[in-house]
Write a structure and sequence with these properties.
InterPro entries: Crypto/Photolyase_FAD-like_sf (IPR036134), Crypto/Photolyase_N_sf (IPR036155), DNA_photolyase_N (IPR006050), Photolyase_Class-2 (IPR052219), Rossmann-like_a/b/a_fold (IPR014729). The chain has about 450 residues and is of the alpha/beta class. It is built from 19 helices and six strands.
Length: about 450
Amino acid sequence: MTIQPQRIRMLKEGEPREDGAYVLYWMQAAKRAHGNHALEYAIDRANELDLPLVCVFGMTDAFPDGNARHYHFMVEGLAEVEADLAKRHVTFHGALGDPDEIALRLSKKAALTVCDRGYLRIEKEWRRKLAKAIDCPLHQIETETVVPVETASPKHEYAARTLRPKIHKLWDEFLQPLSERRVKHKQAADVPKSKLDLSDPAKLVASMKLDHKIGAVTRFRGGQGEARKRLKAFLGKSFATYGTDRNRPEAAAASHMSPYLHFGQIGPLEIALAVREAKTGGDEDKASYLEELIVRRELAVNHVFYEEKYDDYACLPDWCRKTLGEHAKDKREHIYSEKELAAGETHDPYWNASMREMRETGYMHNQLRMYWGKKILEWSASPEDAFRTTLRLNNRYFLDGRDANSFTNVAWLFGLHDRPWGKRPVFGSIRYLGPATLKKFDADAYVETVDKLAKAEADR
């Protein structure tokens, strides 16, 4: 199937270099060999020019808030990418360093270069720098959303209710299967051997300048194969009750796709099509899941794409900062330091359990994430301190931290994409979540589940 033109952006115009030895695909956000519009587009261009295709990946150890936990999961996935690309006759070259500079180096022999699209500030800056320095055409293909971000909306959206009708109007056009191309030119390309030994993820990660205090987890293994296996299992029995059970952490009704989406190891289109075609689950279950996967997730992309200060308290709407400011000096019954919070040393055993799940396994159910974050606001000396603490903990421990969803969800805790509620101490008119939240599910069963998960991690 033809790649929709709305996914394509020419970052540098021009005709392909006549003496180019290959077409180059700079893989960065979409770290997968299947279900990847950017890769399939690059194959089309290589076939048209009768050239081999080279895939380059630059791995920096300077990504903000990155640590060994994140990188181990990512490298597990990259090892699978390298093997899968070889089967498709695509040469893989990986190297440590600034991603844009590594891509620029290999572009010197390329007829043209293709890249995928990222939405965070650092990802946009990499592409901007490459577009400025490169001396061959540079085509950017968007594959990490169902509906391309600027096609969905040309501006920062106020809430899900303002983006939803725009997405729904367009999504049938973009919810179309992506066919895999056959690489016609199978000759090995003139490219240096990959400098990344992906055969031993732990060894490679240990050699990098990272925060190694937060290590790998066994609850999740990286890679597209693992993502597909989990998705298939989710769309079996548990999906039949997703609509009613998705907000019950102890019900095991979550898909656990967020780490794989964050690292680009599976695409949102593949998941959406699988959900639509699932034999289990009714219309309500499917609609509920697609709302989270497409509308809510792409609202988050919209936020970080259009809001430059997405990781700062200043990104909050004026009414949020005003009401929080008016109640900044309200008495707090409990105030905890970031160290105490990270250790799960509060008076609330359910909050402590959620922090333990996050710290030990890299994941927390979304229902608990909301409660967890609202309590940090309640237990911090100021809303600004709470915002910084929540974001640091989120990005440090979650496998899917440092993501558009993460930045947006943290800001939601402080009122972004929400409306004013009845006023109360500390929160002002920001939505409050208290003990009643824990009555919506079996909180004691959740604690028991976390204990088992944490023990399994400790025994690995």
